[in-house]
Design goal:
alpha+beta; Alpha-Beta Plaits; four-stranded antiparallel β-sheet; 2 helices
Length: 75
């Protein structure tokens, strides 16, 4: 199991829309701040599945960056 923490930077006018789209992807949201940053975690069995899910996050309209800040592999 791959578990990663992601920091997302959004356009301020799109933050709520990005949150709505993350929820549609069934992604766990841990926090949002006044700088339009969102903290999420992704959990997937394989690296390929994780990459696919991260790509979907990066393609959400209003997302400027989505950077991995934590990675744990649980065997």
């Amino acid at each position: 199991m791959n578990i990663v923490g992601i920091l997302i930077n959004t356009l301020p006018t799109y933050t709520k829309r990005v949150i709505t789209n993350l929820k549609k992807l069934d992604i766990e949201i841990h926090g949002v701040n006044e700088k339009s940053q969102i903290v999420i975690t992704l959990e997937q069995e394989t690296d390929e599945m994780l990459t696919e899910q991260l790509t979907k996050v990066q393609q959400i309209q209003g997302v400027l960056t989505a950077a991995m800040v934590y990675h744990h592999i649980d065997e």
